[in-house]
Amino acid sequence: MYEDRIDKIIDKYETEKGILIQLLLDIQHEFSWVPKEAIKRISERLKIPCSQIFRVASFYTALSLKPIGRHLVRVCVGTACYVRGAPRILDSVENKLGIKSGETTSDGKFSLETVNCLGCCALGPVIEIDRKYFGKLNSAKLEKILSSCN
Ligand code: FES
User: Fold this and answer.
1) In the sheet that 127-129 helps form, which strands lie side by side, from edge to edge?
2) Ligand 1 pocket, 86 CB below 6 A?
3) Is the CB of 120 under 6 A from ligand 1?
4) pLDDT band per the 50, 70, 90 thresholds, residue 18
5) Measured from the CA of 124, which atom of ligand 1 is nearest?
6) Of 39, 71, 86, 104, which is least packed with CB atoms within 10 Å of its CB?
7) Does the structure show a pLDDT above 70 at 60?
8) 124 in ligand 1 pocket by Cβ < 6 Å?
9) Is residue 20 pLDDT above 80, yes or no?
10) How many Å apart are CA 89 and CA 78, to the nearest integer?
11) 82 alpha carbon to ligand 1 midpoint, in Å?
12) Residue 109 near residue 67, CB atoms below 8 Å
């Protein structure tokens, strides 16, 4: 079902060597994840074993082999955020969304991940939703932020 879109991306790189990571990043950007169909198609067209593509796609955290929800929630559990209440924030997000880290809600609206630092430790506890950062979080603020996601 994704074949035309996958082929269009492969066409851009077909004659180049060593482009697998960039190609997978483009697939990730197009679909928000790397579907099995894409791995199979890349393997067929570029003559790269599926196992090698799968290994690369599994290694890089920027690539996801599972569908991602429309909103990606990343909760920082790094040391600075941890001591400022990250475990409580993570519990609240998990309870509110009904999923654990690494999962996606059944309606495909939210995916949840934990990360070890978002690079703004002074604002801890911090979460990132759809590449926007929200710091100095408490339950009320978190509730409001999650509710505003359509
Ligand atoms: S530890 Fe959370 S932003 Fe650095």
Assistant:
1) 110-115, 71-76, 127-129, 132-134
2) no
3) yes
4) confident
5) 2
6) 71
7) yes
8) yes
9) yes
10) 13
11) 8
12) no
Q: Looking at the DSSP assignment, which residues form a beta bridge with residue 113?
A: 74
CA angle 34, 39, 40 (to 5 degrees): 140
Nearest atom of ligand 1 to the alpha carbon of 77: 2
pLDDT in tens, 68-118: 888 999 999 999 999 999 999 999 999 999 999 989 998 989 999 999 999
Query: What pLDDT does 16 receive?
Result: 74
Q: What is the pLDDT of residue 1?
A: 64
Single out the residue of 115, 12, 7 nearest to residue 61, CA to CA: 115
Cβ partners under 8 Å of residue 95, min gap 6: none
Cα of 84 vs centre of ligand 1, distance in Å, is: 10
Closest approach atom of ligand 1 to CA 117: 4
CA dist 72 and 82 (Å) reads 20
